[in-house]
Write a structure and sequence with these properties.
The protein contains twelve helices and no strands. By secondary structure, it is mainly α. The chain has one domain: Orthogonal Bundle (ABC transporter involved in vitamin B12 uptake, BtuC). α3 packs parallel to α5.
């Protein structure tokens, strides 16, 4: 999967280098990286959720609420770090609601997060009446630093989170617990693992990471839109699935998700530079998700068939 992704990324790069070399200008690459840093942070949480065999399609709505919350808290006079922490807590609280309903009530995650996606988005629209958060304090934008310093902080934090989650999944007992829960909850339970607690925890972590990403995105602008995060859920799920995270859980890596995000992150800008309508972006993303899920299903079926044949021969 990773080799195929790398080949696809290389092919897109070659086409852009020939047809639209200005795509690789420093300014465009910087904007592209900064625009995708929040997506990467949320995708890290989505990897954990999908590894446990669940899904969360409410992250876009959570992102909007956390963005507005950070701006409102800052407007009320809270220092930027405290406003950011409050937004992360708000995200964790929304994740806890999802996790409790999925893990302890037993409602399928697709149903729970579809309901919360709509309820949170419409609730925010009702509270704000569609108005944007304006008149933000000067020390909120760019964390009160220079633009360059703030951009470096954003990239370093996102990279540190990516490395930390990747290392933790490979080397910590908590990472093995996540994989075990997604692979076979019953077997995990026999090993002394509480699958419900694990599922609840990954939803809370994803909510907190969504709040974290929302803060880093919000400080880039003078105003905070109440409709932030539209389509975010599709991007992060696509990045994870295209990157090789099995939608059924139990298999996948952060590295593969990073490659998936890299491929998907250039589609929209690449279409613009090549002269195509950006409206094709979501259609292409949907097609890539369908192809990735289909290939994964075929791979699982092939392995199952091979296992049956081997058992019959034995």
């Amino acid at each position: 999967m990773k080799i195929s992704l790398a080949a696809a990324i290389l092919a897109v790069a070659v086409v852009l280098a020939i047809a639209a070399p200005t795509f690789f200008s420093f300014a465009n690459q910087r904007d592209l990286v900064l625009a995708n840093m929040p997506v990467l942070i949320v995708a890290l949480g989505m990897v954990l959720v999908i590894l446990t065999g669940q899904i969360d399609i409410s992250v876009g709505s959570q992102f909007a609420i956390c963005s507005v919350a950070a701006g409102v808290f800052a407007h009320m006079g809270l220092p930027t770090p405290l406003a950011g922490a409050a937004a992360c807590l708000a995200g964790a609280a929304m994740g806890a609601i999802n996790g409790a309903l999925v893990a302890y009530v037993g409602i399928p995650s697709i149903v729970v997060t579809l309901a919360t996606m709509v309820a949170l988005r419409d609730g925010l629209r009702w509270v704000t009446q569609g108005a944007w958060v304006q008149d933000l304090p000067p020390d909120f934008q760019w964390f009160g630093q220079s633009q360059t310093a703030s951009e470096i902080i954003t990239i370093v934090c996102a990279a540190a989170l990516m490395v930390g989650v990747s290392w933790g999944l490979r080397n910590l007992a908590a990472g093995r617990v996540v994989y075990a829960t997604g692979s076979d909850p019953n077997a995990a339970r026999l090993m002394g693992i509480d699958p419900k607690r694990v599922v609840f925890a990954v939803f809370v972590i994803t909510g907190a990471l969504t709040g974290f990403a929302a803060v880093f995105n919000a400080v880039r602008f003078h105003q905070i839109p109440s409709n932030a995060g539209m389509g975010l859920e599709l991007k992060v799920i696509a990045a994870a699935v295209v990157g090789g995270v099995a939608i059924s859980g139990g298999r996948g890596t952060v590295g593969g998700t990073m490659l998936g995000l890299l491929l998907l992150g250039v589609i929209g800008p690449a279409l613009t530079f090549l002269g195509f309508s950006a409206y094709w972006e979501r259609a292409i993303e949907g097609g890539i998700i369908l192809a990735a899920v289909s290939l994964d299903a075929l791979r699982v079926r092939s392995r199952s068939h091979a296992g049956i044949v081997s058992a019959q021969r034995a």
